[in-house]
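Chain A, query sequence.
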Amino acid sequence: MHGSLKIVILIIILSIGIVVRKQGLLEPDLILDFLEDITESWWLPPAAVLFQAFMYAMAFPASILMWAIGAIYPPLTATILVVAGGVMGSLSAYFLSSRMTSSWSTKLQRSKVFKTIKNNSGFLQLCALRCLPGFPHALINYSAGILKVRLVPFIVSSCIGFALKGFIYCSAIYSALHIEDEPVINLTTLWPLIALVIFALLGVAIQKKYFSD
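Chain A, predicted structure.
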């Protein structure tokens, strides 16, 4: 599924969820209680981190994991888990790039992302790519590995990118699922969705301008 489409679907789901709960059409307290019980399990945080790392390392889409983490943990805690799993997976993909098949490697090297990283592998450029919503991290990870991009800017830019996206997504999800008695039209409850919309539109515009084939 295209990255921008996944973001649009997430925004729609969260918006519907807010309205449905505030109108009393659905009472998700039992679900939330179950999720809160799960968060008390000692094994869940490391499991979430390792599962994310595996997904990113194997170039599988891991955004659904970010959504799940955002549903059960407060934004700050969820962001830490997202960053840990994302960076571990990115580093794994970086070092696994040497084991790519020749056909996959050739296809990757023909992409605009690869050419962009090849010509702009500095910290700011990597950070900008990481922060784009819906942008495939696998292309960044494996391209950087093939090009042997310096590890320090690669790691730091990965931390910043996952932290920014993780906090915005997890805040939107958590606020939608944990509304108490505040009205629906309230800046406190809607700002994560507003930020997510702006973030998504900006990312789509940049990708269409610079990375569309």
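The radius of gyration is 18 Å. The chain has one domain: 3-210.
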